[in-house]
Amino acid sequence: xxxxxxxxxxxQRPAVQVRPVRDRDDQEAVYAIREEVxxxxxxxxxxxxxxxxxxxxxxxxxxxxDRPVGTGRVTLFGDEAQIAWVAVLKPxxxxxxxxxxxxxxxxxxxxxxxxxxxxxxxxxxxxxxRRLGFEPVGRRFYMGxxxxxxxxxxxxxxxxxx
Length: 162
What we know:
Layout: E1 2-4, E2 16-20, H1 24-41, E3 58-64, E4 67-77, E5 80-88, H2 97-111, E6 116-122, H3 126-131, E7 135-143, E8 146-154
């Protein structure tokens, strides 16, 4: 489990905890977050449960005060790790939840021997992924009605993440 404590501020925020999905309740929480973000909010897809890659991927759940607030998934393909389904409920954005999810997935990928991590970033989130070390590759494209950009993180150029 990863715990990310926010920096001190005038309003102390609870810690974000990230852990692998453990059971059916966790998986249902992941589906609920996916449905809220990708279906209801973004109108990207109503098919948040039918991804066959879920069966052989690592999916994580982020919580704040034991409330499920974020998720992400990583799938290994040889020496490449592909991150997908990164989502944070709207009231919890900007609180370090997405960063905590991404750091967990990147560290796990590195521990599994991945040399690269790839993802399809929604273009509004490009700066977020750049801050994590990802670089854009190729042309932008549309998935659904939302513009995306393939991004790559070369783990060989990264120090071992703790």
